[in-house]
Design brief:
- This protein is α/β, with parallel strands linked by helices and about 290 residues long.
- It has two domains: about 5-90, Chemotaxis Receptor Methyltransferase Cher, domain 1 (Orthogonal Bundle), CATH 1.10.155; about 100-175 and about 210-290, Rossmann fold, CATH 3.40.50.150.
- It has ten helices and ten strands.
- Strands 6-2-1-7-8-10-9 form a seven-stranded mixed beta sheet, with helices on both faces.
- The protein is globular, with a radius of gyration of 20 Å.
- It binds S-adenosylmethionine.
- S-adenosylmethionine binds near residues 89, 92, 132, 136 and 165.
- One of its GO terms (biological process) is methylation.
- Its EC number is 2.1.1.80.
- This is protein-glutamate O-methyltransferase.
Length: about 290
């Protein structure tokens, strides 16, 4: 899938509104989404724009999508431009999503990374580069902790989650989930890594032992500059490339591979293809790449 498929997208928390965009409006909005966030959205999907942005019109006192696009293009639209990009993104994620990546880490990845010195000579740094609500980063830390316990070592670990959405980063920092959201965690993992809310409500929090290893920062991958970790051992870039057009995908992959330590590993989503790997990167398994030089 190289474009957003609005039929696969659940209703967005920012809600819907009464105005309807014209194709000219959505062409302008799609061009802005591409320019501001590298997002590749088919302008023909009028309903998608209406669902995602309808409420933004109301909140800005605009009665048409044309007036909203005018605002985005104006000097007064600086703050709204960020919200606009955020409203067009999707945060779908889950614990232990794409299990094959975790199987590979358990069978191969953790041993190889630690053999290089990660976690021992220096803190093993894991960067979840489009982290959504943190499930991905916490799952990876759980997998590493389990490996660590089996190997009876005490690895030093740093988890860094970044995303362009401030709202979703707040959720990641809190690390609080519903029973439905943690259904990817086995009973044994829940016992060890999750605390149930004391009020008996349907809420579960990641244990401080894991939360304290993590920090969550805002980073837009399409305009990263020098932001973000300088060197990481494992970078998760999963299920975000699908939102970008091919030149942006190539630029983002190159920028992240440049932040990998030698022999560091990059993972992308299983449905995402990296058409041009940067020099020195080799594929070691499905959607898993290692920096060889
Ligand atoms: C579908 S979720 C994937 C979450 C997680 N990586 C996973 O695979 O479960 C995509 C995430 O990418 C974020 N995102 C979209 N465009 C981004 C960008 N330009 N920079 C950083 N994050 C972005 C969204 O806010 C969203 O949280």
């Amino acid at each position: 899938m190289s474009r957003l498929d609005p039929t696969a997208v659940p209703p967005h928390p920012l809600g819907t509104g009464p105005a309807h965009p014209t194709i000219q409006d959505t062409q302008r909005l799609a061009a802005l989404a591409l320019r501001l966030g590298g997002l590749h959205i088919d302008p023909g999907k009028l309903d998608f724009f209406r669902q995602r942005l309808g409420k933004r019109l109301a909140q800005n006192g605009k009665t048409s999508f044309r007036a909203y696009a005018d605002l985005l293009e104006s000097g007064a639209g600086t703050a709204e431009r960020k919200i606009f990009i955020e409203a067009l993104t999707t945060h779908t994620t889950s614990f232990f999503r794409e299990q094959k990546h975790f199987d590979w880490l358990e069978a191969t990845g953790w041993s190889e990374l630690t053999a290089e010195g990660a976690g021992l000579a220096w803190p093993l740094r894991i960067w979840s580069a489009a982290c959504s609500n943190g499930s991905e980063l916490y799952s990876t830390l759980i997998s590493l902790k389990e490996h660590d316990a089996r190997a009876t070592r005490h690895l030093r670990v740093e988890g860094i989650g970044t995303d362009l959405s401030q709202a979703i980063l707040r959720a990641a920092r809190q690390g609080v989930y519903t029973a439905n959201e943690i259904k990817g965690l086995s009973e044994a993992r829940r016992k060890q890594f999750v605390l149930r809310a004391k009020d008996g409500s349907d809420r579960y929090r990641i244990v401080p032992e894991l939360r304290n290893l993590c920090r969550f920062d805002p980073i837009n991958l399409t305009e990263m500059g020098n932001d973000g970790p300088s060197l990481a051992d494992l970078i998760l870039l999963r299920n975000v490339l699908i939102y970008f057009d091919p030149p942006t995908q190539k630029r983002v992959v190159a920028a992240l591979c440049a932040r990998l330590r030698p022999h560091g590993v990059l993972m992308t989503g299983h449905t995402e293809t990296v058409s041009q790997l940067p020099t020195g990167m080799v594929q070691v398994a499905s959607s898993i790449y290692r920096k060889e030089s």
